[in-house]
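User: Please predict the structure of the protein below. I'd like the answer in structure-token form so I can feed it into my own downstream comparison script.

Assistant: Understood. Taking the following sequence of 234 residues as input:
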Amino acid sequence: MSDIDEEKPFTNRILDLEEAERPRERLARLGPDALSNYELIAILLRNGMQGENVIDQAKRLLSVHGGLSGLKRTSVIELSKQKGIGMAKATQVMAAVELGRRLSVLNDENEKIAFRSAEDVFDFVCYEMSSLTHEELWVLNLDTRNRHVATDKLYRGSLNSSPVRVAEVFQKPIARNAAAIILVHNHPSGDPKPSAADIAVTKNVQQAGNLLEIKMLDHIVVGTGGYQSILELI
């Protein structure tokens, strides 16, 4: 038997991998939480290409695009141009990304999300907000039990004390008869440290909320993989 015959065959499909290494079988046996990001993407890709198996292809995809947050910002056209991907695989991956985004903001009326801490707020918004390339200010509307009622995406662009009109912040919460609000905005730079303008906006909204009897529970600044509560600082 030649050396070539003795070589392990090239594994470009999930089914060609050892059973214990197959992401699909691992997901069925252990659940999706047990799989890494690249294993989940490998399931979507299904097969690799000559010289690169599907697991390595998934790893490369994440590396090139800067992880899941970068992949979320990538267009279908850009993704399809990656070696070995093509339009079919690109649409499958982006469809999964979009489903993840929609699930992250899904609000079942019978299972409203209750916010008990700044971390709860961060977990609620981080999937969508941490990948934004521009600054946005959101107003989370809450009921009397601090449960999420609605989200108003109020401003895009730089946040400072002059364009943020307090009346606009409270317009929809008043109409919804909200009991409280939480402000959230992101820093595309990745650093969640609040600026002087962020603190000024917080104080203005807090004072107005006290007068309107709609309490502002917090103002969270979202960065890359982290957050800062402004009310913990002032």
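That's the full token string. The chain has ten helices and five strands.
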